[in-house]
Each structure stands twice: as C-alpha cells, then as structure tokens.
Amino acid sequence: MRTALVIGTGLIGTSIALTLAERGVAVYLADADPGQARTAAGLGAGSAEEPPGPVDLAVVAVPPAHVAATLADAMRNGRARACLDVASVKGGPRRELAALGLDLSGYLGSHPMSGREQSGPLAATADLFEGRPWVLTPTPETDTEVLNLALELVSLCRGVPVVMDADAHDRAVALVSHMPHLVSALVAARLEHAEDSAVRLCGQGIRDVTRIAASDPRMWIDILSANPGPVADLLGALAEDLEATVAALRALESGDSEKRRAGAEGVERILRRGNAGQIRVPGKHGTAPRAYETVAVLISDQPGELARIFADAGRVGANIEDVRIEHATGQQAGLVQLMVEPAAVGPLRVGLAERGWSLRA
C-alpha cells in the first residue's frame, strides 16, 4: 500500500490516517466538514487535498447511516483499487450496496474494536488500534487483492485481524458493546437527580460501570439505529433477568422465612451467573483470564508518584499485570491497586514497605 484515502476524519478515521502516515503511506483526507479534514491534516494525518488519481485503498470512516452512500460514491467514481469501511455494524451496509447493484468484489467491511469516550480528530492517536481485534467480514466474492490490502492495513495499525460473518459480527457487538453502553447509560441516568450526599459516596465501582456513558449520544444514536434488532433482543432478555431479580429482592423483605430463603436463592443465582460470565472475558493479551491478587498502596496526588511506585515494583522484580486507581473523596490521595501473580504478592509487599510505601490490606 502506497496511497490511501480516508473519508471521515473523526476519531477512528484520523487515528488510521495518523498511523498510515507514520508508516510512509501517502494519505489523503476527505470529510463533509472541510475544516475537520484540515484539522486532521494539521495533526500530521495526511493531506486535505484531493488525490491526483485512484489510490490503493479508500477507508470510509463516516457514521453508520452514511456508510453505504459514501462507499457507493467512492466505488462508482473509481476513487480506489479497494474500498473498506470501519463502521461498527456490518450487515446493513453490505445489503444496501448489493441493493444498489454495485460490484462488491472490490469492497470489504471491517470494524476495529477500539475507541475512546472522546470523539473528533483531536482525540485521535496513532496507537489506538495496537493489540486490539480488528474484524474483517469478507465474502466469497471479495477479491483476494482487497483482502490482502485490508490485512496490510490492520498490520500497519498493529491490530489483530479477526475474520467473521457480517451478521454474526453484528450480533456479537450487540452483546459486548452496544447493549453494555445502553446499560451503562441507564445506570448513569439514575445519578442525574440523585442527592448530592449520595453522589459524594461514588467509588470505583460506579465509575467503572458508568465510564462509557460519557460518550457522544449523537454517535450512539447512529450506531444503535444501524443494529436495533439484536440489541433489543438482548435488552429484552436482560429485562426478564431484572424482573426476576426485583422479585427476589422483594421476597427478601417478606416476613415469611420461606419467601426470604427463595429470594436469597434467586439473588445468588444471578450473582453466580454473573461470576460465570465474567470469567469468560479475555484477560491480558486476549488470553484466558488469570487469577491475579491485589496489592493496595496509598499514594499521594503528586507528580511522579505513579512512576516511582512502578519503578519500585520493577526493582522488586514484580510484573504489574494490571492497575487501578481509586481516588479518595475530598483528599489529595488515593489507592493504587496493583494486580500481580499470587507468587509476587509477598515480595512486592515487603519491597514496597521497605521503600516507604503505605500498604493497605
């Protein structure tokens, strides 16, 4: 790949352009908002000028509702040897293109499974896709050259290619992305009119659950409008679980010991089902989840403190597998939770204590 055209210079499009430009590909940028394309160009993502001729690969990174029309325009006008989109829904655009009577041998649908709560070119980074799954949805009619260009794009962006059927992809992202976003928004919505005294008690749990609710609603309306059926099916099943859980909790309020026992069993069932589902979430580097243990350390809110604790952990010989920070309300301090292999817990606690760190149980 020597030349590429990125159509749509939001977070994903600009991140792709930045990565390709860093690797020596001549990148051209186009956007319905020329000012946004110029912003991306100013960041080093490529040129906002029209390419002099057909490019090797056109990447369409526009909202789902506009993907098919944008692809159709690029394909009819011969703007590239191959066309690829990065929309979060895959079945709909392919069916729309087929209905328009276009030759689909030069098209391949894709979806990089990466993003941020922020949007727009200023939120873009060249390492956004590193180590992340990048779904490709070729069909028997997809030209081999097109598939090879798509694989080269994923490789240049340091993503991990995953080949799937388009409709299977849409059902999968409904489960692991679209439904969780709505659930996060529903939980966060309960905070909107909550008492200040309650909101001040927010800890890491509520922050984890509501983090993705901060995303742009306009973007998510586009995404959910393109995949409503699978998401509605999942939410319907979730609603049934919620109704059963509500009934179990009401039973715990009963003065009847038998009803309380049944209620406790109902709550336990849903919690154990949650345990069983959570352990299936892939762990580090996409491998099977590992059982790590936590070493909690009090840390002040000062420049260089995180770097110092990581350096001290390295001197002890402990590999930090994951890390979380729980901020203390109203204080310039917090707890850093260092996740390590069980065998590393003892040496890490001793080594950090010797270096003056205040550990918590």
TrEMBL record:
Transmembrane segments: none annotated. Keywords: Oxidoreductase. Pfam families: PDH_C, PDH_N. One of its GO terms (biological process) is tyrosine biosynthetic process. The keyword Oxidoreductase applies. Its EC number is 1.3.1.12. It comes from the Bacteria. GO terms for molecular function: NAD+ binding; prephenate dehydrogenase (NAD+) activity; prephenate dehydrogenase (NADP+) activity. Residues 2-282 form the Prephenate/arogenate dehydrogenase domain. The keyword Oxidoreductase applies. InterPro entries: 6-PGluconate_DH-like_C_sf, NAD(P)-bd_dom_sf, PDH_C, PDH_N, Preph/Arog_dehydrog, Prephen_DH. Belongs to the prephenate/arogenate dehydrogenase family. This is Prephenate dehydrogenase.
